[in-house]
Specification:
This protein is an alpha+beta fold. It is about 30% helix and about 20% strand. The longest helix is centred in the N-terminal third of the chain and has 13 residues.
């Protein structure tokens, strides 16, 4: 609901066409299926998938999905070696078409400083 409110405000009040939403969402579509046995949702609930589907219905494209359709690890947890993708980047349709590259960084320096792998994307705004 909050993303809908902010998106509608940006579009209506400011005429925003190119919107980027990115960060640590603390969820992965695969959490609904409990691949590690950890309970993220009640049986039969699809909370994570409902959230991601609602972002797409707002007109956003999943930038990571474009470059990594089978998921890519963005988070390392000290109690699990499952390759969670809980950090995300979504762009409006036109903006996503101007994305020239996307990288999820996992270097020794990144690993020593954080349990998250940063997402770096380049956009050619002259064509957006």
């Amino acid at each position: 609901g909050v993303l809908t409110l902010y998106t509608e405000t940006l579009r209506k009040l400011y005429g925003a066409e190119h919107i980027l939403i990115a960060g640590d969402f603390n969820m992965d579509r695969r959490m609904d299926d409990n691949p590690t046995g950890t309970k993220f949702s009640k049986v039969g609930e699809r909370r994570q998938n409902m959230f991601f589907d609602s972002v797409k219905r707002l007109g956003f494209v999943d930038c990571l999905e474009l470059h990594h359709p089978n998921y890519i690890q963005t988070h390392r947890h000290n109690r699990s070696d499952f390759p969670w993708q809980i950090d995300h980047m979504f762009a409006t349709e036109t903006l996503s078409r101007s994305m020239s590259s996307l990288e999820v960084m996992e270097t020794p320096e990144v690993i020593s400083r954080s349990d998250h792998n940063p997402i770096i994307a380049d956009f050619d705004l002259s064509i957006a």
